[in-house]
Amino acid sequence: MPGLRVVLAEDAVLLREGLVGLLERFGHKVVAAVGDAEALLSAAATHRPDIVVADVRMPPDYSDEGVRAALKLRETQPDLAILILSQYVEQTYAAELLDAGHGSGVGYLLKDRIGDVREFVDALENVADGRTVIDPDVVRQLLNRHRTPLARLTPREHEVLGLIAEGRSNAAIARRLVVTEAAVSKHIASILTKLDLPPAEDDHRRVLAVLAYLRS
């Protein structure tokens, strides 16, 4: 993917500087790196980036300032891609983010995921490309909390469902599971049927449909 213009909002200086270096190493340009929500809103309005990467909790109260600023940005810039980073699994924030802008171009990752550099950059690029990317640990908790409808799925379908929610395309799932794309399509059709969800070709729409069902 051609170099992205990124606004980064993270109050921890060492992590912020580390992310700037990491993203620039992969050919992306951090046009602004800030430490609070107000500065994030200002930077996004000034620079009109391709994607915003923001921590959930930021000054002054360290509650939900980062995600609130991101949601406000989606109201004024509906096409702006948003990737939220969080220290812990906070499902309410993940759900609110998914609902913003119909879920297109949004991501929610745990900060631990940054440790896998290639996986983090892939997630950022997928979100910038309009996909929905949800941290596997968030998906796992949702699966564990809602066992009844998912009891209909086979172990392989559980694997496919988790990979869909990570924002992976059919081709990427096929490579990961070492099966054909036709087999992946068949699994997805079966998953949607078993969960009483209409089939959809859009990656982000099918992820939203599955997660919306799991949240219900």
For the structure shown, list the relevant keywords.
14% strand, 6 strands, alpha/beta, Rossmann fold, single chain, six-stranded parallel β-sheet, 216 residues
Uncertain spans, ≥5 residues at pLDDT below 50? none
**Overall pLDDT level:** 82
- How many domains? The number is 2
Radius of gyration over all CA atoms, rounded:
17 Å
Shape: globular
Q: How would a crystallographer describe the biggest sheet? A: 6 strands, parallel
Do you know the CATH architecture of the largest domain? 3-Layer(aba) Sandwich
- Beginning-to-end CA distance, first to last residue: 36 Å
Structural category is alpha/beta
Helix and strand succession? EHEHEHEHEHEHHHHHH
Helix segment tally? 11
CATH level-3 fold name of the largest domain = Rossmann fold
Describe the structure concisely.
This protein is 54% helix and 14% strand. It has 216 residues and is an alpha/beta fold.
